Amino acid sequence: MTLKTFPSDPIANSPESSILEHGLDVIFREGVKGFTVEALASDLAMSKKTIYKFFPSKEVLLQSIFKYITNIIERKFQSILKMEINPLDKFETAVSEIVKTLNRVSISKISELKARYPHIWREIEQFRLARRDDFLTIFIEAQDAGYIRKELDLELTSILFMNVINEVFQPEFFLRNQIGIKEVLLLFRSIFLRGIVTSKGLKYIEDKL
Fold for domain 66-208? Predict the structure, then answer.
């Protein structure tokens, strides 16, 4: 099902922005199962009619909320790429940003989203895959600085990195194995990074531990 799209980056302090920001907090706290337009309107001291003026249905509102948070993450990634720091630190910072976002919501609530709104989940997966270009930029910079092995195909490396994350980081994997997102992502980061760096890169990593 294709939903009507709305401005994904509303003006700060606008009614749309307030709805999306508070809606995101509610979803992180209650999950999509416990999310209702009625409760959101009550929290905002706003009528349901006002919310529906901007977002004609609950499904459109949910889609817009997740588009809102992915836009925020994308801007943070772009900010990281512009930092004048070691490229390996950019990699660490980017992964830490992912961890920080994922830690705001429980696995069971992520599972609710995937089960109830699979089309929204697919959009999130596509967004994650699109971050491979950001990591490719970081890998190229790190390789040019002598931190990543020259013989590696960096485009393939970035594709592999994000596809592994997309395939493994599914809610059922964490629920089935009773493990947390943070510990798995940090372990994967360490294993992956140590596998692609040069001796210079390894020394830089170990000196920071």
Answer: Tetracycline Repressor; domain 2 (1.10.357)
